[in-house]
Design a protein that fits this description.
It is built from 9 helices and 13 strands. The protein is an alpha+beta fold and about 290 residues long. It has a single domain, classed as q2cbj1_9rhob like domain (Jelly Rolls). Strands 1, 2, 3, 4, 5, 10, 12 and 13 form an 8-stranded antiparallel β-sheet that branches. Strands 9-6-11 form a 3-stranded antiparallel β-sheet, with no helix packed on it.
Length: about 290
């Protein structure tokens, strides 16, 4: 199969890596100058938005913030044929998209906590068994600037999608509760310096995307550089069985209805929900 830039890519190998290691890195999926242009534009937008800290900025669903004239620039982040085939391979037909969230990690930002993606932690925290026979999420982290270990590239624990999820939470007294002892011990090792170098940095030049399973243990690395901005976009795909609000917590990351209506058919098909579907807290969730 051929990438959007015409360079050959072994799709069978990418699928094998996703199955065995839980992730695959696809280089050269967007021209580097285009990726850098996206990063500059998103930093401009995020400068106008409220930020969590001086070193960390986040934009939920970038398509709700850009001008319609900019759709063509940003659409390759959610219509890349290689990524969509990997999503279909793991999630089946009828998968949905929710997200396209921009993340700007500036020099000095610390590493994030180890986690797996929603809704796996939801099951554990509710005291429910975690399903092991279904892939809920295929996550894609687009590198719009160069990603290196030093500037905070995503850190992945290879093959951890085959293990128990790394969940912990606080009880009513503020005490940590771990999913099990194996989680507690391995989290302790990784969070206290990873002495055995188990975590792998997903590094690449701007225009690269790392595709990984939501069940993987992962974290954003610390940006220890003096002057390198690290800008990426997360485009998660979910099984059609997933409900974006209940257990997923992603309803604010969905497209607005007016934005969905201007999207090409390939995107509309993946948008099973829009922001306006969640104007109240009705339970059970709406059916589709």
């Amino acid at each position: 199969m051929t990438t959007t830039l015409g360079s050959s890519l072994d799709l069978d190998m990418a699928k094998l890596e996703l199955d065995e290691y839980g992730y695959t890195i696809l280089e050269n999926q967007i021209p580097r100058d285009t990726a850098l242009r996206m990063a500059d534009r998103l930093m401009d937008i995020m400068e106008q938005e409220e930020s969590t800290t001086d070193t960390y900025r986040y934009l939920s669903c970038l398509y709700n913030f850009i001008d319609p004239s900019e759709d063509e620039l940003f659409l390759p982040l959610i219509t890349n044929p290689i990524v969509l085939e990997l999503a279909r391979y793991k999630l089946g037909d009828g998968y949905q998209i929710g997200g396209s969230n921009a993340v700007w990690r500036r020099p000095g930002v610390p590493a994030s906590g180890l986690h797996s993606d929603v809704p796996l932690g939801f099951f554990a925290q509710q005291g429910l068994p975690v399903p092991e026979n279904i892939c809920f999420t295929v996550q894609c982290a687009w590198m719009l600037t160069d990603f290196t270990y030093e500037n905070g590239a995503t850190l992945l624990l290879p093959s951890s999608h085959l293990m128990g999820i790394p969940s912990k939470w606080l009880d009513s007294n503020g005490q940590e509760i771990f999913m099990n002892d194996r989680v507690r011990l391995l989290r302790k090792e990784l969070e206290e310096g990873d002495p055995n170098n188990r975590l792998v940095a997903a590094e690449g030049r701007a225009g690269t995307v790392v595709v990984f399973l939501g069940a993987m243990w992962h974290r954003a690395g610390a940006n220890t550089t003096p002057d390198e901005e690290r800008v990426g976009v997360l485009t998660p795909y979910f099984t059609k069985l997933a409900e974006a609000k209940y257990g997923m917590g992603l309803h604010e990351s969905l497209l607005k209805r007016v934005v969905k209506n201007r999207m090409p058919d390939i995107v509309k098909k993946m948008c099973l929900r829009v922001v306006e579907d969640y104007e109240d807290d009705t339970w059970p969730p709406p059916t589709y």
